């Protein structure tokens, strides 16, 4: 559930309009014309830099997922759906609030997303979709007590694999990683489900926690998830990071071929190409730089962690990497974000800059072997 694109199991009423959109004929120009006709805000129509696809876009057919143009048009239409309820008084219906929250979540507007979800839960305290999304949002921003409470309430209404994954995800970053791996592994094995997306989500969480512990089973969990969905962008991203950490850049290159349109995956192609001296590295580097620059011009906050890593690992610009990692840390508090800030602070020999992360690691009792190796490398600022 560290992903902004957490699986939402329940197919509640607010998703029906989205399903109708997915059923439309594959005609990107027609979709774009419809968006214009509906009067969606120009900023929504004006996507330039490729972005990580939202969960809604990930779930459209693969031919759509690989067509950047179509993906953006679908995202814009989904955005229009939430606009339909934005001006309702005194407050939109719970279904509209949840849909709007998911769109804000996809754009990393976590404060607004959490506000909408809590408003929805005031209307419908047992809204299971709202609880599951709220747990994900609270976890990403580091509100772990609130995330745990949301998982607890979700479990009361819907025990099973989704509930175990929700609980394990939070426990996995708050000192109970071993329990999380054991509980979720058992649930994945013993709780049958016909829902492939649910199983992929649970296996991805399981693999991420195991990877942080350097548990040898992590790769098996990643591969099981890929066996069910080898085109999932988030899964591909975290698995690529896992492989890069273990010096397996050639596997990353083969894994990510065909996903060049997705920024996060393209960046990891660049890292892999650099690691093995691939002849395409300079092109990857220049393209990633151009994409990040375009995102920055738009005020894009989705890519700050990868931008920091790019500056550190490819451009070798420690101060710039540290600045970006600090900006990212202001709104994202996952182990991945902590590691990015620590790595930049180490490169700059700046222990003071790492203080917020060090305090967070202590407070959460995070278990992450890579982070544990970084911390002793910190030195006092020059």
Question: Can you walk through the features of this model?
Answer:
The chain is mostly helical and 382 residues long. It has helices at 16-22, 28-38, 42-45, 55-58, 62-65, 68-83, 94-106, 110-123, 128-140, 144-157, 161-171, 177-190, 196-212, 218-228, 233-245, 249-256, 263-276, 281-297, 304-314, 318-329, 335-347, 351-364, 369-374. Among the domains are: 1-138, no CATH class; 159-238, Serine Threonine Protein Phosphatase 5, Tetratricopeptide repeat, CATH 1.25.40. Helix 2 packs parallel to helix 6 (68-83), helix 9 (128-140) runs antiparallel to helix 10 and helix 17 packs antiparallel against helix 18. The radius of gyration is 20 Å and the shape is globular. The two termini are 38 Å apart. Mean pLDDT is 81; it is low at 2-74.
Total strands: the figure is 0
What is the CA-atom radius of gyration, in angstroms? Answer: 20 Å
Helix content: 55-70%
Q: Briefly note the structural class of the backbone.
A: mainly alpha
Q: Which overall shape is indicated by the principal axes computed on the Cα atoms?
A: globular
Largest sheet: none
| Series of H and E elements | HHHHHHHHHHHHHHHHHHHHHHH
Strand content: under 5%
Enumerate the spans where pLDDT stays under 50 for 5 or more consecutive residues.
2-74
Mean pLDDT: 81
What is the straight-line distance between the termini?
38 Å
Tally of helical segments: 23
